[in-house]
Amino acid sequence: MILFHDAISKRADALAKTAEAANAKVRFNKLNKYMEYVDKDTSNFSAARLKMHEQILAELSKDLFPSSDD
Question: Residue ranges of the alpha helices (H) in the chain?
Answer without folding.
Answer: 2-39, 47-64
